[in-house]
Design brief:
InterPro entries: Beta-prop_COPA/B_2nd, Coatomer_alpha_WD-assoc_reg, Coatomer_complex_subunit, TPR_COPA_B, WD40/YVTN_repeat-like_dom_sf, WD40_PAC1, WD40_repeat_CS, WD40_repeat_dom_sf
Shape: elongated
Radius of gyration: 44 Å
Number of helices: 17
CATH superfamily of the largest domain: YVTN repeat-like/Quinoprotein amine dehydrogenase
Protein name: Coatomer subunit alpha
CATH architecture of the largest domain: 7 Propeller
Structural class: alpha+beta
GO molecular function: structural molecule activity
Helix content: 10-25%
Number of domains: 4
Subcellular location: Cytoplasm; Golgi apparatus membrane
CATH class of the largest domain: Mainly Beta
GO cellular component, one term: Golgi membrane
Largest sheet: 5 strands, antiparallel
């Protein structure tokens, strides 16, 4: 497309129409019609309008170079020097341009003509770029004078100005959906937003008072879930383009305190009319300067001025009755219990009693911005950019948690659980510091109230939203902390609270017997059963898995419990014959020791055979084994030492020896094998069984229909014999 006679600095498509606008150093702005180009390259349709058919049939008017696809529709001349940037309005027939003449010009166009509307003057150097605000009647421009300027589209007057010390600005862009802008300068890119997006709001019992984007005061009823019509208009508060910062409500006097950051902080005291018929302008307004203003009693409020580091206690006539000097460096004040204030400094939070005129408590925590009280006023959450600190009402530290992304808001559940929101999550925190995710968010919201499964919140458009959550996770953990086993059992039976996270949590907190109720995987159930000493479940899972390592671990645990019948079974599964023999010796089971001796003989294992013969006191068997091995001296000594003279003589004769040729050690009288005093092998050792936890007792009572269950933990089958050993023939 030809027409400009100097460098073209910028070109933009129209968001909806077949138009292009361009800016050039030839001091002109041109609007191009590209409808012919679009029709030329669009897919043909069977039903063309008469005008389209006529346009395709007749040759289009060509420019001086013969181009018929895109033609100049308007030429806008008004800049005295080169034009650097131009942009269409997203919805209105408006154009804005910025040039080297330091001017930002506004143009309007119709179907037949375009003309200059007005000029925004204020830049001291070349205006580099400009654009329309995507959602508000504002123009933004940047320039080589190192400033970003915001203009009122309707009045064409400067609203705000931001300046960098060293860097010139060259380009600016708007995010298509959220309230973010990016400006490029000499050393980088700066991303910023023009206004605070947190709606000013306050809660009183079952009502939420908040200020909309149109600066109207509204009320939302949590019980009826209805939104009231506008009750007041606060358009005249502060600047037209700067939203209110905070809102405080006095129910007794039906009055509100609204603060705005305009002019280093201003506040207004307004009474809400009893019969609100719409967004009426307030009449009796009390104004003043202050960074923050909150009610501290029925007929008084506190105003904090950060520049003077002073707090004034005022009555409802706006007269100062008392002045407080907060700690040096105080950045804000927060609401405390009736008659008290919080002083927020960069490193501490101070609780101040207004009546006693003294500091009551202090807590070291940095960067606190918001103070959120629990419903019973026993705990307070102190929110900073990335941290949540929970303290008692006397500022005794309870817990602290850290988030990697910004914390936006918080509120308390009726059960004493803190819910807080980040940019994309709603999370929870218990008083002991345990925390987790409740749900993800599509958009940033600000929590107001939690009731059951409903979370009441405001979005960035100051619209009330009710989100549904599943509180099962944090309610279960809270019941665990409080040892409320009835509620825990109810949650387990009525919800699908299953997952590795809850199992790991229960293990970490020392409740494997509860974690066992959530698990179906045999390996995990085996591990948990061993941890909580539930041998019945461990045996069942070991039989399912049937792995040598599991039998070994089960045997070790059962031995520690004195459950030798389970130990016997694990040794049999492992075919650990030596340990079995020693177990039978320890329990005095002669019958099974005899069986182990026969098995050893059948296996040809002379070491095991000797051990079993020794355990049994079977001298003949030992002598026979020595003979079979050719160890005749040992056979002779064994026979001689046990008084078997005939057997000893027979061994000597067989080897051609006499008794004089054999040197014997001095031997005493042979001793007998000790007799079994008590047949302990008939039952497990009488050790005290581990008592069931409160949760296990409740669970067993449920399973048995309310009957009490003995605390056996793996000892109920004590009379049952162990499995018979299978021997390979």
């Amino acid at each position: 497309m030809t027409g400009h006679n100097h460098y073209v600095m910028c070109a933009q498509f129209h968001p909806k129409e077949d138009l292009i606008v361009s800016a050039s150093l030839d001091q002109s702005v041109r609007v191009w019609d590209i409808s012919g180009l679009r029709k030329k390259h669009s897919a043909p349709t069977s039903s063309l309008s008469f005008e389209d058919q006529l346009a395709r049939a007749s040759p289009a008017q060509a420019d001086m170079f013969g181009n018929t696809d895109a033609v100049v529709k308007f030429v806008l001349e008004g800049h005295d020097r080169g034009v650097n940037w131009v942009a269409f309005h997203p919805t209105l027939p408006l154009i804005v341009s910025a040039g080297d003449d330091r001017l930002v010009k506004l143009w309007r166009m119709s179907d037949t003509k375009a003309w200059e509307v007005d000029t925004c003057r204020g830049h001291f150097q070349n205006a580099s770029a400009c654009l329309f605000h995507p959602h508000q009647d504002l123009i933004l421009s940047v320039g080589e004078d190192k400033t970003i300027r915001v203009w009122d589209l309707n009045k064409r007057t400067s609203v705000q100005s931001f300046k960098r010390d060293l860097d010139r600005f060259w380009v600016i862009a708007a995010h298509p959906e959220i309230n973010l802008f990016a400006a490029g300068h000499d050393t980088g890119v700066m991303v910023f937003k023009l206004e605070r997006e947190r709606p000013a709001s306050t809660i009183h019992q079952t009502q939420l008072f908040y200020i909309t984007k149109e600066k109207h005061l509204k009320c939302y009823d949590f019980v009826k879930k209805t939104e009231s019509p506008p009750m007041l208009s606060l358009r005249k508060l502060g600047s037209a383009w700067v939203p209110p910062r905070t809102l405080s409500y006095n129910a007794a006097e039906r009055a509100i305190l609204v603060t705005s950051p305009t002019d280093n902080g201003t506040y207004e005291l307004v009474h809400i009319p009893k019969d609100s018929t719409g967004a009426i302008e307030p009449t009796d307004i009390k104004r003043g300067h202050g960074t923050s203003a909150i009610f501290v009693g029925r007929n008084k409020f506190a105003v904090f001025n950060q520049s003077t580091q002073q707090i004034d206690i005022k009555d409802l006539s706006n007269s100062t009755s008392e002045t407080i000097k907060p700690p040096s460096g105080t950045t804000d004040i927060g609401v405390g219990e009736p008659g008290s204030l919080f002083f927020l400094t960069p490193t501490t939070v101070v609780l101040y009693d207004i009546q006693q005129k003294q500091q009551v408590a202090e807590l070291s925590t940095s960067g606190v911005k918001y103070v959120v009280w629990s419903n019973d006023w026993q705990y307070v959450a102190l929110l900073s950019k990335h941290n949540v600190t929970i303290a008692t009402k006397s500022l005794e530290h309870v817990s602290t948690l850290h988030e990697t992304i910004r914390i936006k808001s918080a509120c308390w559940d009726d059960s004493g659980v803190l819910l807080y929101s980040t940019l994309n999550h709603i999370k929870y925190s218990l008083l002991n510091g345990d925390n987790g995710i409740v749900r993800t968010l599509d958009n940033t919201i600000y929590l107001i109230r939690v009731k059951g499964k409903n979370v009441y919140c405001l979005d960035r458009g100051a619209q009330p939203i009710v989100l549904e959550i599943d509180p099962t996770d944090y309610r279960f953990k809270l019941a665990l902390v409080k040892r409320n086993y009835d509620e825990m059992l109810q949650i387990i039976k009525t919800s699908s609270l299953v997952g590795q996270s809850i199992i790991s949590y229960l293990q970490k907190k020392g409740y494997p017997e509860i974690a066992l109720q959530f698990v179906q995987d045999p390996q995990t159930r085996f591990e948990l059963a061993l941890e909580c000493g539930n041998l019945d479940v461990a045996i069942e899972m070991a039989k399912q898995l049937d792995r040598p390592k599991l039998w070994l671990r089960l045997g070790t645990e059962a031995l520690a419990h004195g459950n030798h019948q389970t130990v016997e079974m694990t040794y049999q599964k492992q075919r650990n014959f030596d340990k079995l023999s020693f177990l039978y010796l320890a329990t005095g089971d002669q019958e099974k020791l005899n069986r182990m001796a026969k098995i050893a003989e059948h296996r040809g294992d002379f070491t095991s055979r000797f051990q079993n013969a020794l355990y049994l006191g079977d001298v003949e068997n030992r002598i026979q084994m020595f003979k079979e091995l050719g160890l005749f001296p040992l056979a002779y000594l064994t026979a001689k030492s046990h008084g078997l003279a005939e057997e000893a003589e027979a061994i000597l004769e067989a080897n051609g020896l006499t008794e004089d040729q054999v040197r014997l050690p001095v031997l005493g009288e042979p001793r007998e094998i000790p007799k079994t005093v008590f047949p302990t092998f008939k039952s497990n050792w009488p050790v005290k069984a581990a008592a069931h936890s409160g949760f296990e007792k409740l669970l067993l009572a449920e399973e048995e229909g309310g009957e009490e269950e003995d605390d056996t933990n793996g000892y109920e089958d004590e009379g049952e014999p162990a499995e018979e050993i299978e021997v390979d023939e």
